Amino acid sequence: MDRNNRVVLVYPAKPGESKMPDRPPLGILTVAAPLVEKGMDVTVLDERAEPDFDMKLSEELKKGPLCVGVSSMSGSHITGALRVSKLVKELSDIPVVWGGVHASLEPGSTIANEFVDIIVRDDGENTFPKLMEMIGASKSDLSGLPGIGFKKNGEIILTGPGEPANIESVPLIPFGLIDLDNYRSRDLWCEGEKVLPVETSRGCPFSCSFCTESVRKKKWRALPPERVVEDIKTYIRKYGVTNFTFIDDNFFGNIKRAESILDLLIKENVGIKWYTNARTDYMARATPATIEKIERSGCRMLTFGAESGSERILKMVNKFASKEDVLHANRKLRGLNIIPHFVTIQGFPGETKKDTIETILMNIDILLENERAICDSPFLIPTPGTAIAKECLADKAGEFTLEDWSRIFEMKNKGRPAWLDGGTYEFLCRWRKVIKLICITNRAYVPKALNALYRALLGGIRVYLKSK
Question: Which domains does the chain have, with CATH numbers?
């Protein structure tokens, strides 16, 4: 049995997650790409898409892989990742290696867990293959490899930061390692269809205090426009999928480059539909010619982090964009075949009733000014390592175990968070149904007559709040 050539990569399911997943797990497939190129035998198991997941994992463990790599985000995803890790330990002595966002943001509490042997921090494309070489060579001292954490004789060792990946050297993503028939989008722009996630750039030059990129602080890196379009054409030929999500932290981080991609998509008549995130200040400044390019190239939805209708809050979180940017961006997309999706956040630390009312009013203005616009308004999650988390959790964050971080998303369900004023919290609770109404208005699944009623109700609520 050739244990030196076999790796299992797992994307766990969240507890109770039973729906067909909407898109493939790009993170572990990106890590798999250089391993496949090196000729390694890589198995990818997505628990969300595998009805017999435990049995298949057990079968793979019997083949003696070098390790089982587990990817996890923060929050309830950790619970699923721990269940998988525990199962591996019960069935084998194969090392469990954690990667993904949470291990990078919270390396200490992650590697301290009894079911985690090694962690890979930040970019894994370079680090993970080197780690496999060291495990394959039975090296017990991993301290010479930057970008990891491990245990040695009961001691936790975190090595220095790993080298940021040159994403131009990342091979094509091996989507063939999974069954794409197991994935169907739940996004409004291509509901029920197959979608491939692709990454054309990595990093973000901004430093919003609630965002993971404010912690990572990696240099913005990008693929050349020609490479992006050629990769897309290859994926279309290999997998027959014409819907793409650009999962970049900031696709328009270099506007000239982004527009070059749009130009090539149009010139070569690639014929895709696509979606990505965008900043409101960028869209507010965009010329009519640029917006026409965005639509003609196949864009069908853009998500904007509007965050708040309060200029005070926007300044506090280092957004470097204004409420007027949000409203201007929305107006510019009116009448186009693009769904503008705006996300605001409830429950910032220090948020007042006035701030909350300003956000509700902005959301209503968005919906009433553009019948294709939609809004979402989740409660703040203090993402590990961010300035917001430090403000919300104070010194408690340093005491959190991996299990504690798995429950971070549940804080809003356990009464008033400590960082939120009682009056603001009570106001949010009283207006919960209005916020829900905001989040369903203009959705495609709402019958037109009912949506007209919703819009009329929001108009009345707007008049009422303006009078307060």
Answer: 3-158 (3.40.50.280), 186-466 (3.80.30.20)
> How does pLDDT run across 140-188, given as a tens digit for each residue?
889 999 999 999 988 999 999 888 888 899 999 999 999 999 999 999 9
Calpha distance 255→261 (Å, rounded) = 10
pLDDT of 252 higher than 70: yes
| Rounded Cα distance, 219 and 203, in Å | 6
Evaluated on CA atoms 58, 99, 18, 22, the torsion sign reads negative
91-93-95 Cα angle (round to 5): 115
244 forms bridges with which residues in the sheet?
Answer: 196, 274
- Amino acid type, 88: V
Among 132, 201, 215, 213, which residue's Cα sits nearest to residue 170? 201
Q: Which amino acid is at 94?
A: I
Q: Is 278 left (phi over 0), alpha (psi -120 to 50) or beta?
A: beta
Sheet strands side by side (includes 96-99): 41-46, 6-11, 68-71, 96-99, 118-120, 148-152, 155-158
What amino acid occupies position 215? V
Provide the token pair at 295: 């639509």
* Rounded CA separation 11/395 (Å): 31
The one-letter amino acid code at 201 reads: S
**pLDDT tier for residue 397 given thresholds of 50, 70 and 90:** confident
Give the span between the Cα atoms of 438 and 433, in whole angstroms.
Answer: 9
Rg (CA), the chain: 23
Instruction: Identify which of 119, 349, 72, 104 has the alpha carbon closest to the alpha carbon of residue 214.
Output: 104
